[in-house]
Each structure stands twice: as structure tokens, then as C-alpha cells.
Here is the input.
Amino acid sequence: QVQLVESGGGLVQAGESLRLSCAASGRTFSINIMGWFRQAPGKEREFVSAINSSGGSTYYADSVKGRFTISRDNAKNTAYLQMNSLKPEDTAVYYCAAGEFWNLWVGRRLSIIADQSQYKYWGQGTQVTVSS
Here is the structure.
């Protein structure tokens, strides 16, 4: 089993920044991709970003491209999501997820990367609120 714990959420004003962290523990050797999803009130959970185990492949939703940066520190089994130029529409609960499905073929298909059903492990979520 793998456990994921998110941290770093909070309340900020529009234009400010936050960095989310996701610490993985347990049988982490099987994980080869980590991702971030978010769910706003009254909306479905949506893909935000993902990164493969080497960090060489990163993926972003169009809505956050150029503003958010995903990274990971394998020595700490931790993934990060740096969120800059935050907007009120970024307000949501942010979930960390981890999976074992990445390979070179999958890595060329954002539709699979963004499919939350592919991710086996999930964190409890952290609230991000952006005020205007």
C-alpha cells in the first residue's frame, strides 16, 4: 500500500502563489507517476498536472499551463505543485494521486495521463482558496 499526504494549501489573494507538497510513504517503489487533481464546489474533479518517476515528463491542463509547475524529489518521495499567478477560479480542494501505469506509450497520451481512474492511490486533499 501507498499513503499520500498533501500539505501547503491555504487562503491567498489573486495573483499570489502557493506550493503544495505530496509526501508518499509505504510501497513507493511501484509508483511511476504522480499527479494533482482538483475539485471545485459543485464541479467534478479535474486533472491539473502530472509527472513521471524520472521527472523527465510533465503534463499540465491548459487552464494552468504557464502558471503551475510540477516537480518531484525522489529522495524524499515527495511531489510538489508550485502555483503562481493564482486566480479565484483555481479555488478547489487539491488532491494528490499516484499510479503505476506510466510507460513511454502512455506518456505520449495526455488523455490517459489525465484519466483519474488510472491512479491507484489518493491523498485526502488540501483546500486552496483564492480571493479576488
